[in-house]
Amino acid sequence: MTVTIVGAQFGDEGKGGIVDVFGEAADVVVRYQGGDNAGHTVVREGTEYKLSLVPSGAVRGKVGVLGNGCVVNPETLFDEVDTLRDRGLDPDVRVARRAHVIFPYHRVLDGIEEEVKSESDGNLEVGTTGRGIGPTYEDKAARHGLRVGDLLDPDVLRERLSYVVPKKRALAEEVYGVDTDDRFDVDALFEQYRSYGERLAREEMTVNAGAFLTDRLAAGDDVVFEGAQGTGLDIDHGTYPYVTSSNPTAGGASTGSGVSPAVVADGEVVGIVKAYLSRVGTGPMPTELGGVVGDTPGYEEDTEGRREELATRIREDGGEYGTVTGRPRRVGWLDVPVLRHATRVSGFTGLAVNHVDTLAGIEEVRVGHSYTVEGEELHSLPATTERWGDCTPNFRTFDGWPEFDSSAVAAEGYDALPAEARAYLEYIEDELDTPVYAVGVGPGRSETVVREHPL
Ligand code: IMP
After folding, report:
1. Atom of ligand 1 nearest to the CA of 131
2. pLDDT at res. 125
3. What tens digit of pLDDT does each residue of 358-417 get?
4. The predicted structure's pLDDT at residue 123
């Protein structure tokens, strides 16, 4: 049995907490895309673990797999594994030999490209996490990337580095006019990455992910696919070019792990929704309440319809600061066209709605029910980001709900939620024609109301 967890918005929907709750019964937790751009916080026995690459299940004694669709920075991988070991855990992490490797030059180029874009006319700066994600996937698509399996064979490693590194150095020096250092030096990189390969081999961490997972499933294991980022950041189905470079949507769980689409479709696909909207980085956001000048590229204060004060209140109460970058997030009302789009693309069989507690105490809660653009009403996301930017939301208004005792509600169950909050959740269920399996009512793992457990 599999459960695929997908962010329905722009990341930061609280996927980690839901993976934690639903993954408790799982044996294997798999990441299928992205790299160390994906911050997740796991609390175990009162201790907080902040991870950006290692699947969160590894903290709870599950096998954690980084699938072939991931891009892996070995430095981060070993840092996180060592930190967990220092804290007394024994994480079992496996890495696909087909996964691509992030090198130091990828990070440098990520930074340079963002800087150049920020100086261009077209507001092209994405606001990336600076982890080298885009440049690594670029190399994968250009067929000159290096894969985890290449680190295990020194001859192949040297051969591949000798081809690609001079190209990267020329790009940095001749196109962008910056000085390069050891991060663009074949010999230095060879030594460093050969030693990573030796450690991966010594600790028997690498796997043929598709075969490994198929065997585990055949042996009766339950597998959770843990999507990072969210549908709006999907390179195909998100708000291009303000996206990440991989597929967080459910199709990615198959291509990014090596199990067939039938395996994913045979299981549950749970869309994770935050009761409002947040976004880090550039791109339109029709239901935006407010961002932070200086932290959101291109963001300007005092635009009509914005309510900075309410945005600040939600940001503070909801802890809306990036786990990886620490950046304050932009905040907006729930955008239902985004959710309809996400539901169609990934085929959600259930939903988890988080941060319902964060909106408590607000007198009137709004949702962007549909958009109007050029006189036409749209119920889903238009295919071009420019058109999305021209959309005006048509709001629906809900009575707010009072503050409530999260632990009591989590203990008593769904019916203990304030009636107004239930009306809000039932609206979401109806609009997406998908049942709400779980409701997040607080940051702690125990503060989740589970109505239906997919495993
Ligand atoms: P990149 O993935 O670092 O290339 O960044 C591309 C876009 O995705 C930027 O807007 C980032 O802010 C956003 N992004 C990447 N990872 C996350 C995440 O884990 N949560 C929210 N946004 C993310």
Report:
1. 3
2. 87
3. 999 999 999 999 999 999 999 999 999 999 999 999 999 999 999 999 999 999 999 999
4. 77
Domain spans, the chain: 2-96+206-270, 101-200, 273-450
Measured by CA distance, the residue closest to atom 17 of ligand 1 is 229
Span 225-256, pLDDT tens digits: 999 999 999 999 999 999 999 999 999 999 99
Catalytic residue among 20, 36, 40, 369, which?
40
Nearest CA to ligand 1 atom 11: 128
How far is residue 137's CA from residue 215's CA, in Å, rounded to a whole number?
Answer: 28
Look at domain 273-450 and name its CATH class: alpha beta
Helix or strand holding residue 197 (H, E)? helix 186-202
Residue 77 identity (one-letter amino acid): L
**Distance (Å) from CA 70 to ligand 1 centroid:** 14
Write down the pLDDT at residue 280. Answer: 87
Is position 36 annotated as part of the catalytic site?
no
Cα distance from N-terminal residue to C-terminal residue, the chain: 7
Ligand 1 centre distance from Cα of residue 155 (Å): 34
Residue to mutate, 233, 279, 327, ligand 1, most ligand atoms under 8 Å from C-beta: 233
φ, ψ of residue 182 to 5 degrees: the values are -55, -25
Whether the pLDDT of residue 86 is over 80: the answer is yes
37 CA from centroid of ligand 1 (Å)? 6
What is the fold of 101-200?
Answer: Adenylosuccinate Synthetase, subunit A; domain 2 (1.10.300)
Q: What residues does ligand 1 touch, defined as CB less than 6 Å away?
A: 11-12, 37-39, 126-129, 131, 133-134, 228-229, 233, 242, 244-245, 280-281
Give the Å distance between the CA of 245 and the centre of ligand 1.
Answer: 9
Q: Is 355 a catalytic residue?
A: no
Confirm or reject CATH 3.40.440.10 for domain 2-96+206-270, answering yes or no: yes
Q: Kindly report whether the peptide bond that precedes residue 241 is cis, defined as omega within 30 degrees of 0.
A: yes
pLDDT tens digits for 6-52?
999 999 999 988 998 998 899 999 999 999 999 888 878 778 888 99
The residue contributing the CA closest to ligand 1 atom 10 is: 281
409-437 pLDDT, tens digit per residue, is 999 999 999 999 999 999 999 999 999 99
One-character DSSP codes across 248-312: -STHHHHHTTTS-HHHHHHSEEEEEEESSEEE-SSS--TTEEE--TTTSTT--S--TT--HHHHH
What is the 229 CA–ligand 1 centroid distance (Å)?
A: 7
What's the CA gap between 146 and 99, in Å, rounded?
9
pTM above 0.85, yes or no: yes
